[in-house]
Amino acid sequence: MRFTPATELTTRYKSLQKRLQQHQLDAALLVQNSDLFYFTGSVQQGFYYLPAEGEPVYLVRKDFGRARMECGLQHVLPLASSKQLFAILREQGIALPQKIAMELDVLPVRQYKHYQKLLAPADIVDASPLVREVRAIKSDYEISIMKDCALIMDKVFQRAKDVIAVGRTDWEVLAELEQYAKGEGHQGLIRFRGFNGEAGFGHLFSGSDGAVPTYSDTPLGGLGPNPAVGQGASYKKIAAGEPIILDLVIAYEGYMVDQTRTFSIGKLPDQLSEAYMAMLKVQEKMSEVAKPGVAWGTVYQQCLQLATDMGYKDHFMGASGAQVSFIGHGIGIELDECPFIARGFDQHPLEENMTFAFEPKVVFPGLGALGVENSWRVAAEGVKRLTYSDETLLEL
Amino acid sequence: MRFTPATELTTRYKSLQKRLQQHQLDAALLVQNSDLFYFTGSVQQGFYYLPAEGEPVYLVRKDFGRARMECGLQHVLPLASSKQLFAILREQGIALPQKIAMELDVLPVRQYKHYQKLLAPADIVDASPLVREVRAIKSDYEISIMKDCALIMDKVFQRAKDVIAVGRTDWEVLAELEQYAKGEGHQGLIRFRGFNGEAGFGHLFSGSDGAVPTYSDTPLGGLGPNPAVGQGASYKKIAAGEPIILDLVIAYEGYMVDQTRTFSIGKLPDQLSEAYMAMLKVQEKMSEVAKPGVAWGTVYQQCLQLATDMGYKDHFMGASGAQVSFIGHGIGIELDECPFIARGFDQHPLEENMTFAFEPKVVFPGLGALGVENSWRVAAEGVKRLTYSDETLLEL
């Protein structure tokens, strides 16, 4: 168990402060679990208050003792009720804000209305673009944890070769791999920022199930166990000669990596194994194009163009009619961080130490899905791998 | 795999319509996954539009085919973008609303602002109290699924007796039980409505770990695997002579039950086994008091009073300083539904076919936690059990 070093917390708040100042905001008040973990090192029922100048304060309702133990900030204070917020800040000699930033991308309306009264006459503006910018650039500390995740990930994919078998269901194999991953350090909880986002350990799809579309903004969907879940692995039994695609998220010490590989039991039809090789080429293209200064959307467009040129227009990133408009997504504490290797992000350049998952996939209705995914770090000279498992089309 | 019957969907929308009319609202527009499942039977990226009079329409962006297959409503229509919403409703001959209800307890501010523009000049008001009222009363269909959940739950608790052992960690035993539960039908995904709520399969705490407080509004907390998760099972090894408390949620076909039992390996000190017996008495008290017409808060107060009278004031529902102000919570599609057997709900009467989990627990810092939990249905004559596993203090 690691506690986020105080030096990390300082770098992080200074990065956010710089942005608060640039936008003429007086303070940020953060309340969401992922942001609290990032800025305090300790997820509690509490408020992280960061003035545009000066030091942050973590005001904690529950559990103060845990916060005091886990949090490397100097100012951690108990709070009986959110109503005391400003009174306590005033006692600390902190001037009250006129423009205060909160996470309006995740904060529910009802709570927002409560805070509007509580913080009046201050104006509440959206902190989330600034917070997401700060969080997108990873420190060496964060990247070292993500490399630890990749080690666990590789063990799980090694194990997958032993447990994928004809006649077993996608569902039971995935459940077995999840248990194994937890034994190797996977923390279980996967955080997803977007509304209605319900991310878990990942997916395993054999054959035609890989081509079933769902509500989620993912290239693959899946039937899921029932209509209440409606995505992910189902009770389909694995057969020989069909693509088996395994897409997993490993989270460890609060951070994640995302990886996909494709297996088969016995040989696949040439059409499918060629499609898999094409996805490796899309990945290679990404690794040539992506570097600091290149727009996220440029990486997307060039990779999409290559997939189209190779004849996969109607299969790439979903079957025709259910295609998604991204090939990669930032990753760290949440599964949907910046950058997005996606359509329309033409003014957003990659920066050094951004981390993202890149997942070129093809879908053939009735046959299944194939593809590859790795998690990457943007280095000065180009992208470097975080995940590293064997990428051959794995015939079992 | 079950599809929600059309007759169910009709009863549900008529119940919400009645409330819309009572509150002089023109329509409800629902977008959250749990509510979409309840009112349409199919979780999609879409909008459930219910006028105060007339029939509901499910407008689906992704995946329309899945919605058409799973949803028992007559009017399921494709939607390319939320901007088309009103145009399509107009084509259906639906008058545009002036007051429209959305789920403001969960809808993020940024999306709310988008809908304010989209729905202008209509006023958006909070649908969630009405939706939660409707959902609190379960049909026979829903209760029959919850009974199926209880069957799976009992199997998992039978299994627990075999896998809890000295020297194994709480973490690994829980992971093994989760895999087993998934094999028996548990759907994995647990839905929690509250902001920052991160509920999973449940908890297993041996000895002192049961008394570690956390951020969550739960009587027990736990150290968790790391500060990013900060609740639930940790890597503590199970020892003889300490209380081992297992609190699980089983979800099946979209519905849940919640159950807790207490185990020990070898005999517990009398102080602890007596405390467990006291929690059974609190449960008995609840089953005597709770019936249609009795306020949720009355049940809470009478049970709290009994626990206090038996000498557990500083241990009941958390250790002193970290106690929660509830003993039970409604359960169904989400883990935090109405009714709340909690302080302050003195004007909210229990109604027939409400379902709730009731979880009297005691916490002794340094020693651990003990308690019992079952899921219950309110029948005309009083409460009836949904979960039924052996309640003796289980010496292994």
Helices, strands, pairings?
The structure is a homodimer of 396-residue chains.
Chain A: H1 6-22, E1 27-30, H2 33-40, E2 45-51, E3 57-62, H3 64-70, E4 76-78, H4 85-91, E5 99-102, H5 109-119, E6 123-126, H6 128-136, H7 140-163, H8 170-183, E7 202-206, E8 243-252, E9 255-264, H9 270-289, H10 296-309, E10 326-330, E11 337-342, E12 355-358, E13 361-364, E14 368-371, E15 374-379, E16 382-385, E17 394-395
Helix pairs in contact in A: 1-6, 7-8, 9-10
Short description:
Two copies of one chain form a homodimer. Chain A is built from ten helices and 17 strands. With 396 residues, chain A is of the alpha+beta class.
Describe the structure.
Chains A, B: This is Creatinase/Prolidase N-terminal domain-containing protein. Chains A, B: Keywords: Coiled coil. Chains A, B: Residues 6-33 form a coiled coil. With 396 residues, chain A is α+β, with helices and mostly antiparallel strands. The first copy, chain A, folds into 2 domains: 6-135, Creatine Amidinohydrolase, Chain A, domain 1; 137-395, Creatine Amidinohydrolase, CATH 3.90.230. Chain A has helices at 6-22, 33-40, 64-70, 85-91, 109-119, 128-136, 140-163, 170-183, 270-289, 296-309; strands at 27-30, 45-51, 57-62, 76-78, 99-102, 123-126, 202-206, 243-252, 255-264, 326-330, 337-342, 355-358, 361-364, 368-371, 374-379, 382-385, 394-395. Chain A has a 6-stranded mixed beta sheet with strand order 4-3-2-1-5-6, with helices on both faces. In chain A, strands 11-10-12-15-16 form a 5-stranded antiparallel beta sheet. In chain A, strands 7-8-9-17 form a 4-stranded mixed beta sheet. In chain A, a hairpin with a 3-residue loop joins strand 13 and strand 14. In chain A, helix 1 crosses helix 6 (128-136) and helix 7 packs across helix 8. The two termini of chain A are 36 Å apart. The interface between A and B is large, with 66 and 65 residues.
